[in-house]
């Protein structure tokens, strides 16, 4: 892992993953092992505390069969592979399709003096990145949550101009697109590799995302 003082990014992971009723804390700890080891901890419990006072960190609510993540770590681009490994592990535990939000905040941009002129590396813009990762027990479960989020975004955007009753055709077209994607997935015999969809800033607002408003 990158030394905290040298880490180029502050990385925030946020989401709620519903797991099967038979899943216990030990299963969660093993699934999240790439994350807590990346953070330099020896156990999930040691890494679970939030980096900021206002963030809950990582919590497994057994009675609700829910893993709740609102957690920050300092790191570099290598954390993307950590996330991929964690998602593959969570696929084995998930009870339904769920989304995980990930935000990379550019620490150097934050630390730049507001009136500093000599910053050619950034040229006044941050290297922030925001994307969604999806986990689920099956490809269809993952596609269902992708579809639901896309419909929510599209309807929210278009309701500024149209009544909800006028958007039935739009929702039907979204469903058609996802049906085609799933059929293609089945045909390609890639069912063992659930899609790891990403979403950029579209539909989520431009500019820098606010921090830790949870």
3D structure, described in words:
There is one protein chain. The chain is an alpha+beta fold and 214 residues long. The protein folds into two domains: 9-137, 4-Layer Sandwich (S-adenosylmethionine decarboxylase); 143-187, no CATH class. The protein contains seven helices and five strands. It has helices at 25-31, 33-38, 44-47, 79-91, 107-111, 139-158, 168-187, and strands spanning 9-18, 57-61, 66-75, 98-106, 129-135. A five-stranded antiparallel β-sheet has the order 2-3-1-4-5. A hairpin with a 4-residue loop joins strand 2 (57-61) and strand 3 (66-75). Helix 6 packs antiparallel against helix 7. Residues 191-206 have low confidence and may be disordered. It holds the Pfam family DUF6806. InterPro entries: DUF6806. Residues 191-214 are annotated as: Disordered.
Strand order of the largest sheet: 2-3-1-4-5
Instruction: Report, as a whole number of angstroms, the end-to-end distance.
Output: 27 Å
Annotated CATH topology of the largest domain: S-adenosylmethionine decarboxylase
Please give the count of helices: 7
Low-confidence runs: 191-206
Quote the beta fraction.
Answer: 15-25%
**Cα radius of gyration in angstroms:** 19 Å
Mean pLDDT: 81
Tell me about the largest β-sheet: 5 strands, antiparallel
Which class of secondary structure composition applies to the elements?
A: alpha+beta
Helix content: 25-40%
Q: For the record, what CATH class of the largest domain applies?
A: Alpha Beta
Quantity of strands, as a count:
5
- By CATH, the architecture of the largest domain is named 4-Layer Sandwich
> Shape, please?
globular
Order of helices and strands, N to C? EHHHEEHEHEHH
**How many independent structural domains?**
2
